[in-house]
Amino acid sequence: MTTSRYIIARIAQAFGVNRRQRRMSEAASEMHLLREAEQVLGQSVWEQVEEVEELGVEYWNLRKLMKEREEIRSRLDECEAVLTDAHEQRTALLGTKTDAQQELEEARSQLLQDQENLAKERDSVIQQAREIRRIYDGLKMKLEVLQREGGSEVIEKTKGRMSELKVSFTKLKQDRDRIAASIAEGDRKLDVIETDLNEEKQKHRDEAADAFQLIGQANREISALKAQHGLVDTQMRQLFSEIGRHVSRNAFVSDQCHKAAKGHIPMIDVMRALRRSVAMNHRLAGM
């Protein structure tokens, strides 16, 4: 708010035009801009205020906080490097296989293929046995009918064929038992391989667990350091604001402040105008 606008507003108030809420809103907005400007100015000139006695506390506290922030930033970099290494180590451990694990997986794959082939062979034997049994049952029925009707030559031939089928059936039964035993042995070997493979994988998981633990520890430390970093930044912003406020108020009454504010006079003029505007808005709002 300029002086002319203030005078016009005062005249309007005399005629009953009172915009208190608008004045309070303008004052709050201008105060926010003023605080931001004070912080920016303080951050720009703080290194030049060492000789300003009134700002000794703020200046040396900032020096101290700058050092603390550098240390925190250094520790953060170290922790982030450790975290990156731990992630790479975990990925490498979980993504690679030892020679023993590779051999076990190849043996398991081959054994599974053998088991599948044996299962197919068993199914084929069972199917052949069923066909032989069906043929045998047909010949048995034929023999019963022939024995009733007579015809010894055909009967003997039928009996011979039935005997051949019995031999074939017995052989198929033996083949089925042999295949079943092979499948059972293969299942036992698979169980052994699975046990060995799980033990090998567990070794990997145990090694990766150390990396996981390191990752968790690094993340916790990074979170704590970031919180400290944020706290230091907040304290520094407050000190910048104090320095900017003092320098802007005294830039034209103190040689040391004027020297520190060199190059920032236009900003200080704007800040002085904002202070006057805030004061006038407060007066208009009856504050």
Description of the molecule:
- Helix content is 89%, strand content 0%.
- The protein has 287 residues and is mainly alpha-helical.
- It has one domain (53-253): Helix Hairpins, CATH 1.10.287.
- The protein is rod-shaped and about 145 Å long.
Q: What does the largest sheet look like? A: none
Overall spatial form: rod-shaped
Radius of gyration: 48 Å
Intertermini distance: 16 Å
**Secondary-structure arrangement, i.e. CATH architecture:** Orthogonal Bundle
Give the total of domains. 1
How many extended strands?
0
Mean pLDDT figure: 84
Q: Uncertain segments of ≥5 residues (pLDDT<50)?
A: none
CATH class: Mainly Alpha
Helix percentage: over 70%
According to CATH, the fold-level topology is Helix Hairpins
The amount of beta strand, in percent, is under 5%
Order of helices and strands: HHHHHHH
Number of helices: 7
Q: Strand pairing plus helix content: what structural class?
A: mainly alpha
Summarize the structure.
The chain has 287 residues and is mostly helical. The protein contains 7 helices and no strands.
